[in-house]
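User: Predict the structure for this protein chain, please.
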Amino acid sequence: MGEAVMTTRRQADGAIVVDVRGSLDAATVDALRGSLVGTLQRDRPVTMIVDLTYVVFMDSMGIGALVTGYNTAREIGTRFVLRNPSEFVHRQLRVTGLAEMFGLPPSSSATTFTT
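Assistant: Here is the predicted structure, written as structure tokens:
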């Protein structure tokens, strides 16, 4: 199992950015899910950006954590944005049929995806 590091910061425009680094798997997804849901419920930002630039691995549990964040954001009226998913992450979302839900294009050529 891998390691993941998450940091959360607020941008000048009020958006909250969650930077994720490492692997999203059984050993790390509870922390991501808790961070996403907790921050959304506590801060209720207009926009939450999940930066996936440095995610090197993501399995179905990682995808599930992103879906939980997406659903929580929708429930409270927050815009949920995936920023810079690697080709690997983008491919995982396409294979599972969730790319469209996250607003991903057919390839990972664009760097920011919004929902």
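The radius of gyration is 13 Å.
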